[in-house]
From TrEMBL:
GO process annotations (BP): methylation
Protein origin, superkingdom: Bacteria
PANTHER family recorded: TRANS-ACONITATE 2-METHYLTRANSFERASE-RELATED
GO molecular function per UniProt: methyltransferase activity
One Pfam family per UniProt: Methyltransf_11
Key words of the record: Methyltransferase, Transferase
Protein name: Class I SAM-dependent methyltransferase
Domain Methyltransferase type: 2-62
Record has Methyltransferase as a keyword: yes
Annotated organism of origin: Nodularia spumigena UHCC 0060
Amino acid sequence: MEYAKKNYQENDLDLISADAEQFEWSERFDIVTSFETIEHLYDPEKFLERIHNLLIPDGVFLLCVPLGETRHMDRYHLHAFSQEEMFALLKKTGFSVDWHHCDECFLTRSELLRWGKLYPESSPSINELLFSRRGWRIIYDFVFRGGFDIPQVLIYARRIN
């Protein structure tokens, strides 16, 4: 937040840090964005209902979600979504998917090592690497695949009811 306030603060821009599942605001938004958030939340459906209630009718929701199993790479990912599951969840919570685009994203060994230096708390311990399913998956991807494949979907959804 400090970085954002220092580098992106505008006179008419409010920067807010809040619990994504509990966030309240007195006014409604035209647009809400959420990039790589929903996979970290305990209750993704509750989060989407929250966003739905915060948007004006026909309000726009832009979100980016990693697809497939990523929990071995990021211990803080609580969910693995397919594109179809994400679309169904959006529909269930009152959104219409008007546009989407899938991107293939591959993090190379050097990018992963840089990531580990930036976020040391996300790096697995030696015990976890050697004695857990997650650890063996990390070793396999790192050694034999040269990194991690993390496809993502960018979604433009609209509040429909």
